[in-house]
Amino acid sequence: MSQALIYARTTVQSSMSGWLLNGLAYRLAGLAFATVLPAAFWVVVAASIANAVGVTIAASALVAVGAVIALFLGSVCAPIILKSEEI
Question: How many domains does the chain have?
Answer without folding.
Answer: 1
